């Protein structure tokens, strides 16, 4: 049976990391909330599950429900060859993904530093300060760490872990895509010094299933409702 994937139907957000893994794996899945009455189905499952997810995204595989992006990818990686089979390699891939989750949270907080329940317009001044620190310090710090991992991979700098693509590679691709949308100036400057990340991004984009997905209507465009938002005043 196809996987049932649950996430907000109009944004990429944290769910996009899961979508990329499902697409690369060639897995059959239903993006439930994007279907008619899908939001109601998502809400009912959250309300009725014995082990309810705190929030989307979550994945249903038969009777198994897995929530949290990193946990979903850990689950899919094991089933679809998107992570090393040895425990040490699988754990290392998971650690990288958790760090990506931290990075994504900081990207979100660059435009919502005070509270997620407030509009951006209610915290613009605070966002200017937070975005400056994110641009000047946090983007380079995180990306330099990923560049170092690529350089130290004993099987070559084409991948973060081992000698074949993992879900961590797909997720780093998505981070670069999101940052390039939200902070094109700052991200462009950073990537000039990080050729291995730039090469990984380009190689993921050219993978046949990913390329087909990016060109399809299944790929939701970036917008100012998701995690990665472009406010020109925040990108200097």
Automatic annotation (TrEMBL):
Residues 93-234 form the GST C-terminal domain. Residues 2-84 form the GST N-terminal domain. This is Glutathione S-transferase. It comes from the Bacteria. It comes from Microvirga ossetica. Keywords: Transferase. One of its GO terms (biological process) is glutathione metabolic process. One of its GO terms (molecular function) is glutathione transferase activity. InterPro entries: Glutathione-S-Trfase_C-like, Glutathione-S-Trfase_C_sf, Glutathione_S-Trfase, Glutathione_S-Trfase_N, GST_C, GST_superfamily, Thioredoxin-like_sf.
